[in-house]
Every structure is written in structure tokens, then in C-alpha cells.
Amino acid sequence: LSICSRTVEPLEYYRRFLKENCRPDGRELGEFRTTTVNIGKCLCSITTADGSALVKLGNTTVICGVKAELAAPAVDSANKGYIVPNVELPSLCAERFRSGPPGEEAQAASQFIADVIENSQMIVKEDLCIANGKLAWVLYCDIICLDYDGNLLDASVFALLAALKNVQLPLVTINEETGLSEVNLKQKNPLIIRKHPVATSFAIFDDTLLIVDPTAEEEDLATGTVTIVTDEEGRLCSVHKPGGSPLTGAKLQDCITRAITRHKEIKKLIDKVIKSITPK
């Protein structure tokens, strides 16, 4: 298979591999790229964040920083805090992105992350309330892609989860006499993570063939994509399918089954990293 055919006829080039149940990078159709995660103090990059993580999925590299601030709860949600996710795709991560306001892909990714947080109940907003109607935590979750080579959503959800697992919030009380908040930086508690959502993305080739963890090139050649989000109980939290080829019920079930397996792999990886950085 010559490089020329990959440049001139990339889809035909891919089809010749897919017929043999493999891909140009040597992976099987259901095989993920090497996945690594660094959490918190393993990162020198975001010293100002209350929690941070760097995730690599093959060449795709995503960093997440979580910043916690205090604010008054909304009038109609007096017992809830806020979670504000934001995905950035700067021009440095790939030629396809431009500097300036968030593009369509970045906005769609931010909305996807917000939906995952809401649907999975990974963080219950009531847990972020300090004093009903008076004070609550706001978690600003900035997810920045440093190198884009496909499958942004899987890497972003993983980086978000890893960064949130690393957050330590100081004890905050309200002085009854003055009505002012008092922050005790010496007494910190981890954030309550109630669920651990993991995303698993697939590209659909020629309307029927499913490949997991697509590269940017594979995404461009695919006739559609689908992302399945599950939690540790195997519960389906989200199915994200932005148009493209339809999926049969059987194919969708295949995706869900693979996503549940992937969840176990990611959970094991994150637990191992957290254990390695936890003081003995």
C-alpha cells in the first residue's frame, strides 16, 4: 500500500485495511490508542488550579484545570452551586482551528461536557452549597486541547473526571455575628464525586462498520460518529450522535457493551494513578 494512494484516495486506502479488520496505524477495529493520565502535582503546568489533569489518547492531548470560587446561589436554586465547563480548541492544537472566539466544534464539546455532568450526576450541585441562599461553590472547569488527533470527547471527559478527583476544597463557614465567610485553608476536603462517567467514541465507516477511538483522519473519512457515556454501574448516561449514518439497535448495543468494558479500563487506570500520588 503506497503512501501515494493514501494521499490521492484516502478512503479507498482505509477500506483496504478495514477489509482485513485492521487500521493503518496497526490497531484492530476495537482497539484504543495508548491512554495515559497525569494528575495534580504530577503537573507543573497549572499551579493555580484547585485540581488538574493531563490526558493523552494517542497523540490527542488534553489538559483540564478546575478553579473553585465562592458565589451567591441563584435565587431559584438557593441550595445549589454551579459547574461551568468550557472546552477550548486553540489554533496551536491543529491547523483546522483558528484563533478567536470559540468555534462550532468547541461550543458543541462544551455543551456535551455540560450534558454529561448533568445526566451522570457525577457532581450533585446541592453538594456545592455551603449556606442555603447565601454561599456556594462555583467550579470552573477549563478543558484545553494541546494536540488534536481525533476523539476529543473521550479525552475531555477523562481529563475532567481526573481533575475533579484531584480537587480539595477548603472548609468554609459563615460567621453568624458578621455574616462574612471564613475560609480555613488548613482543613481541606476532597470534592464529592458521586458517579464516574467515561466516554467511548466510535467512527462509522461506509454506514455499517464501527471503529473505536478514531483519529482525526478517521473522523474526516467516517460517515458518522457516536459517543457512549457510561458510569461504574454500567448505566447509560448519554448517547451523543451528531447526525451521520444511522445505527441499528444491534450495532448500538455493541457500542454500549464495548463502552462498559472501556469504563473498567479507565477506572482501573485512574485509581492506579490516584493511589500513586496519595500520601502513605
Automatic annotation (TrEMBL):
Annotated localization: Cytoplasm; Nucleus, Nucleolus
GO cellular component: cytoplasmic exosome (RNase complex); nuclear exosome (RNase complex); nucleolus
TM annotation in the entry: none
CDD domains, sorted: RNase_PH_RRP43
Pfam families to which the protein is assigned, alphabetical: RNase_PH, RNase_PH_C
PANTHER family per record: EXOSOME COMPLEX COMPONENT RRP43 (PTHR11097:SF9), EXOSOME COMPLEX EXONUCLEASE RIBOSOMAL RNA PROCESSING PROTEIN (PTHR11097)
Family the entry assigns: Belongs to the RNase PH family.
Protein's name according to its UniProt entry: Exosome complex component RRP43
Species per Swiss-Prot/TrEMBL record: Chaetops frenatus
Taxonomic placement: Eukaryota, Metazoa, Chordata, Craniata, Vertebrata
Gene: Exosc8
